[in-house]
Design a protein that fits this description.
The structure holds 2 protein chains of 2 kinds. Chain A contains 17 helices and 14 strands. By secondary structure, chain A is of the alpha/beta class. Chain A has 2 domains: 135 residues, Alpha-Beta Plaits, CATH 3.30.70; 292 residues, Alpha-Beta Barrel (TIM Barrel). In chain A, the strands form 2 sheets. Chain A has an 8-stranded mixed barrel with strand order 6-7-8-9-10-11-12-13. Chain A has a 5-stranded mixed sheet with strand order 1-3-4-2-5, with helices on both faces. In chain B, a hairpin with a 5-residue loop joins strand 2 and strand 3. By secondary structure, chain B is an alpha/beta fold. The longest helix of chain B has 19 residues. An 8-stranded mixed sheet of chain B has the order 5-6-7-8-9-10-11-12. Chain B has a 4-stranded antiparallel sheet with strand order 2-3-1-4. Classes of the chains: A alpha/beta, B alpha/beta. Chains A and B meet through helix 2, helix 3, helix 7, helix 10 and helix 11 of A and helix 7, helix 9, helix 11, helix 12 and helix 13 of B.
């Protein structure tokens, strides 16, 4: 039996540790071996014994996250303390409690299932419990399965050290040195004219420019990267915005993102902080864009917009006066169920695709439908649509606006169908060139106007 | 440190209100002198009279951490730490000398100079500030101090690892109204006095000036508060209380230690105060933390400073148990239909006078907190008993909630 190194009550009562056997803190296979031995012993003396398996390994990725395991373990440890039991934590991430049974444990499986229902594709299958005097076979089979499991331990990277605030200066310097096309991408959102994927016209609506700091934000000696700390990143956002606006302004006329080959190219959307939208720098940038004949849009994340709705309302008025669309980004399935994003009255609302959306429990589906209706499908963009399932679910809801990797591939395929020089390129190259924000990455494209066009494309081909 | 502000009476009044409110909330003692120049007879209220009268307060401006405020009605207030001693006496003598033999009758120096002890007489000073023509709004005035920057935060985080924070812990009562205008303690809000903490560890800087860096700072502060709360003996005879926490903090090992040693008598009587910005940053994790905390018998409170927030983030839809609204002039135009939760689950904070209390009662707010709210009786912790049953935090509906 080994110390887990973290848990329910570590500082107060060291004896708690003797109730947990943890694969992560043991030599390989020891937790599985101890679980198997304990299962065999319990099967020999099953009277009044209970076994409970919490199948954390069945949660939908990215779960189980550390807090899932920490809380679940704490709950089981408490039961083990009360009921002369033991908690096992094999390599697959599951947690197993073997203890004496009692009426206080009756509610335990239901409680765990309810707690983890949001991340469980099948909440009913997340907990197994057996009264061993009735049947010990399932526990023995499970323990044998764990013992025989030779799959490598899932990656359990230690949590990154928090970034030091002092790392912000280094990041700011790196942003100043960065070659912007290397750290920015653009992704096109489209309007699907028809209800079927094949043959429908894809009309580009806007192109979102995103900045990726990972490449220039290495972990510092005294902590993790800034991009791993939401607070420091939020503090840094206005500086990053200012640098982005300056870079876009400098690139005007030099084949930058604002210099589309097609003058009727759809608007460029930028992710900006509300404080940036309310700053004089934004006003000056908007004037430059208007003079250059380019219309733009701004995207603000829901957490920032909803946390200060008054500021967001001011930004919305200002953006609209400037001729920019204001998009509410980062609206998740959870957000539709527990907030009212439509109250912020953004021009467009970007709903992030999640496999949870079609799999919601029956009790939550009416709330989802009501939220979609309150926003209105004409204002909804289903983003993160990285596979066909996302598009099909969106179309079934009446959504016609999409953005994501699958949309990029569809657009590239449609471009290649109509491009006279398509034989010289691959689909992947066409996707990458459309995502590029600088001329260098497009230099081998013989029809760059097609990368920027606002004209509808169709997977049915030009004919 | 003498601090002479340029003439901006409206801003001064708002700042004075904020300072007095802060003193009342934190319990930190200050003294105040109000020079009531608005009471001078017209013949003595010419500009040079006012200038000379204000100059008479110069000795007091050099008292420990003195701040001077010019109010819209020409009154001047000076706040300082400590008794004031010779500086106070010198200023009072200078005022008396200034108007001695100047008229018939002379202006009464005793009526001109009002000396107040805070926080006991905070209500009087707040009333004078409002009567001076300052707006009723208690919205935070612009902070003249620069916000804490990244380097300052790094230094402060380092200092916090070594500092003894017990002297910064404040217990602020949250009360239910009783008969005859009385208030009874429902629970205590336990929190660190950020204003005093920054004055001691980051002088001249505003920790709240940058919301993102302040959020980062709260992560450190919540760990320290939890460590203090679970110190031996701290919970044994404690009254119901509330803590400021982040969603990550509710799911962290420190909170699990707190939960493991929470006495049964307190189970179901602890309130966890969460910020909307923190909740919204990861709603999936929030929903997990909410379900966990409520299953363990905690009540979750949404802190709200802007009534407009409630349209997009209705507390009941979010699954919160309680809502805390901060009193402001903007709130005064709100009615209960905008709360997004039953008024009987609402706390009105920042209550600084009769207007706030009247509004709260009119909309059916259940709990009140702020400098104008003084509970009758003592917290249960001092007597070893809990407050009256009708004023405690509602218990969870099922006994099973306390135990999985």
């Amino acid at each position: 039996m080994t110390d887990t190194g973290s848990g329910w009550d570590g500082t107060r009562n060291a004896s708690v540790w003797s109730f947990v056997t943890d694969a992560a803190a043991s030599f390989p296979g020891s937790a599985e071996r101890l679980l198997h031995d304990a299962a065999v012993r319990a099967a020999r003396h099953p009277q009044g014994r209970l076994a409970l398996v919490l199948h954390l390994s069945r949660l939908r990725p990215p779960a189980p996250r550390p807090h899932h395991a920490r809380i679940a373990r704490a709950i089981l440890q408490e039961a083990a303390l009360r009921r002369d039991g033991h908690v096992f934590a094999p390599r697959n991430g599951d947690l197993i409690l073997i203890c004496t049974n009692g009426p206080d444990l009756l509610a335990l499986p239901e409680m765990l299932g309810r707690l983890l229902r949001l991340d469980a594709p099948e909440p009913a299958a997340i907990v197994s419990s057996w009264r061993l005097e009735q049947t010990a076979e399932p526990l023995l089979d499970y323990a044998a399965g764990r013992l025989a499991d030779r799959a490598p331990t899932p990656g359990t990277r230690p949590p990154a050290a928090p970034a030091s605030p002092l790392a912000l200066d280094a990041l700011a310097a790196a942003v100043q040195r960065a070659h912007w096309p290397d750290i920015t991408r653009r992704q096109t959102a489209v309007l699907l004219a028809g209800r079927d994927l094949i043959g429908t016209a894809l009309r580009p609506l806007f192109r979102e420019v995103t900045v990726t700091l990972a490449a220039i934000d290495p972990a510092q000696q005294d902590g993790g990267p800034v991009s791993g700390d939401a607070c420091l990143l939020g503090h840094f956002a206005p500086r990053l915005d200012a640098a982005l606006l300056a870079a876009l302004t400098d690139a005007l006329g030099n084949g930058g993102p604002l210099d589309a080959a097609d003058r009727s190219a759809p608007p460029l959307h930028l992710n900006l902080a509300v404080s940036t939208l309310l700053s004089p720098a934004f006003g000056a940038f908007a004037v430059r864009c208007r003079k250059a004949g380019r219309m733009l849009g701004a995207e603000v994340a829901l957490p920032e917009a909803a946390a200060d709705p008054s500021a967001f309302a001011r930004a919305r008025r200002l953006a609209n006066e400037t001729g920019w669309a204001l998009v509410l980004d980062g609206v998740t399935c959870d957000a539709l169920l527990v907030t009212r994003p439509w109250a912020l009255r953004a021009d467009l609302v970007k709903l992030a695709w999640s496999p949870l959306l079609p799999d919601l429990p029956a009790a939550e589906r009416p709330a989802l439908a009501a939220a979609l209706a309150a926003i209105g499908v004409a204002r909804l963009v289903l983003c993160d649509a990285d596979d066909e399932a996302a598009i099909r679910w969106g179309l079934a809801q009446g959504i016609r606006r999409f953005q994501g990797k699958h949309v990029e591939v569809m657009l590239a395929a449609a471009r290649m169908l109509s491009c006279p020089a398509a034989a010289d390129c691959t689909l992947r190259q066409c996707v990458e060139r459309a995502a590029a924000t600088g001329p260098a990455a497009r230099r081998f494209c013989r029809r760059p106007d097609l990368l920027d066009t606002r004209a509808p494309a169709s997977l049915a081909g030009p004919g | 440190m003498a601090h002479v502000l340029p003439a901006a009476p409206g801003r001064d009044a708002a700042t004075l209100i904020a300072r007095v409110t802060s003193s009342a909330l934190s319990g930190v003692a200050r003294r105040a002198l109000v020079l009531r120049l608005s009471r001078l007879p017209p013949g003595f209220a010419r500009p040079h009279h006012l200038r000379l009268a204000r100059a008479a307060l110069d000795p007091l401006r050099r008292a420990d951490r003195a701040e001077a405020f010019e109010l819209p009605n020409s009154d001047t207030a000076v706040l300082w730490r400590g008794q004031g001693g010779p500086a106070l006496q010198a200023s009072l003598a200078a005022v008396a000398e200034l108007f001695a033999g100047a008229g018939d009758p002379d202006p009464d120096p005793a009526a001109l100079c009002l000396v107040l002890d805070l926080p006991e007489q905070a209500e009087t000073l707040l009333r004078l500030a409002r009567e001076s023509g300052a707006t009723e709004s208690t919205a935070t005035p612009p902070d003249p101090r620069p916000p804490l920057d990244a380097a300052g935060l790094a230094a402060l985080e380092g200092a916090l690892t070594r500092a003894d924070l017990t002297r910064f812990v404040r217990r602020r009562p949250v009360c239910v109204p009783g008969p005859g205008g009385s208030f009874h303690l429902a629970w205590e809000k336990r929190a660190l006095a950020v204003g005093d903490l920054e004055a001691a560890l980051a002088p001249g800087r505003s920790c709240r000036g940058d919301p993102w860096l302040f959020r980062r700072l709260t992560l450190t502060l919540e760990r320290r508060v939890l460590a203090m709360v679970i110190a031996p003996g701290e919970l044994a005879r404690a009254a119901p209380f509330a803590l400021d926490l982040t969603v990550g903090g509710v799911l962290g090992p420190d909170f699990l230690r707190f939960d493991a040693i929470l006495p049964a008598a307190l189970r179901g009587r602890i309130v966890l105060d969460l910020q909307a910005a923190d909740i919204l940053s990861d709603l999936s994790t929030f929903r997990f933390a909410r379900d966990f905390a409520q299953a363990r018998g905690y009540r979750l409170l949404l802190k709200c400073c802007d009534p407009d927030l409630l349209d997009a983030v209705p507390p009941a839809r979010l699954g919160m148990d309680l809502l805390c609204l901060r009193w402001s002039s903007a709130l005064a135009s709100c009615d209960a239909t905008r709360f997004g939760i039953a008024p009987g689950r609402v706390v009105l904070a920042g209550v600084d006078g009769p207007a706030a209390i009247a509004w709260g009662r009119s909309v059916g707010v259940a709990w009140f907190a702020g400098p104008a709210i003084v509970p009758r009786g003592q917290p249960g912790a001092r007597t070893g008993t809990h407050p009256d049953g009708n004023v405690t935090v509602p218990r969870p509906s099922t006994a099973a909630a306390a135990r999985f």
